[in-house]
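Fold Annotation — chain and its backbone

Fields — amino acid sequence, structure tokens

___
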Amino acid sequence: MFKAVLLEQGEGGTTVARMTGLDESALPEGDVRVAVRWSSLNYKDALAITGRSPVVRKWPMVPGIDFAGIVEQSSDPRWTVGDEVVLTGFGVGEGHWGGLAQKAQVKGDWLVGLPAGLDARRAMAVGTAGFTAMLCVMALEKHGLGPGDGEVLVTGASGGVGSVAVALLARLGYRVVASTGRLEERDYLESLGAGSVIDRATLSAPGRPLAKERWAGVVDSVGSHTLANACAATRENGAVAACGLAQGMDFPASVAPFILRGVTLYGINSVTVPRAPREAAWRRIAQDMPMDLLDTITGVVALKDVIEVAPRFLDGKVRGRLVVDVSAA
């Protein structure tokens, strides 16, 4: 038996979340069984647990879009018992049982070896959010953006993706401007390396097709008007990496920044990244993430408390990253 958060459909399509014990025979198909050591609570997990958005595609479901643990059984030749592994994405926690549990059974193809320099807890402090932030940074670097090229805007900076993006970019030498709806977090964001902090209200309302050029690059986890305004103020030949939709899925913009200034918009999908760039991103995280700052942006929640915490997460009352101690069930 192992403990897990289990989501089931109630009357009228409602989501019923509960902590329960499950037999290992209930685990879904997969060629690798992992003893989960740590997971994390992400925006998508909170949506699934609360039922505020139709994230879950198969019922019943164990949520949790990422986890880190130790292989305890494998028929995949790439993985042997005792290997330390990390998983993010691939529909885990949506269409395949995920990481908010003490056991997981998945395809070996979905796993990445825990890189040197990271333990399981810190890997989940990074988690899907930090992995996505690293992919955004790598996209800006591939575009040719360098630390001396000008200001880089990070939207949703107090959240998981934003916090890691601020810390990574600052560590790499970029001048970071952090946008947040919680200006009381100014000291926190400056401690991560933000050179300045602006109110998200300056970006979240409908704006002009083109604004005064300011940003050399952007990491956006918000979408909607915020993304449109960020693009409108991006400098000639600048780059924007878009990875989230906290404000909305719409993109009320014009083509002006792209055809008049040569701005490039990169869409970042962390779910199905191929193995080579996935492994490269995790190596970069282990190399470039300032671990002391990672610890400061990370809180811990027990598995047994995840259901209670999820609504607070969606209401913007959680700062940075939340790792889940699955042993505390």
Remarks:
- The domain at 128-267 is CATH 3.40.50.720 (Rossmann fold).
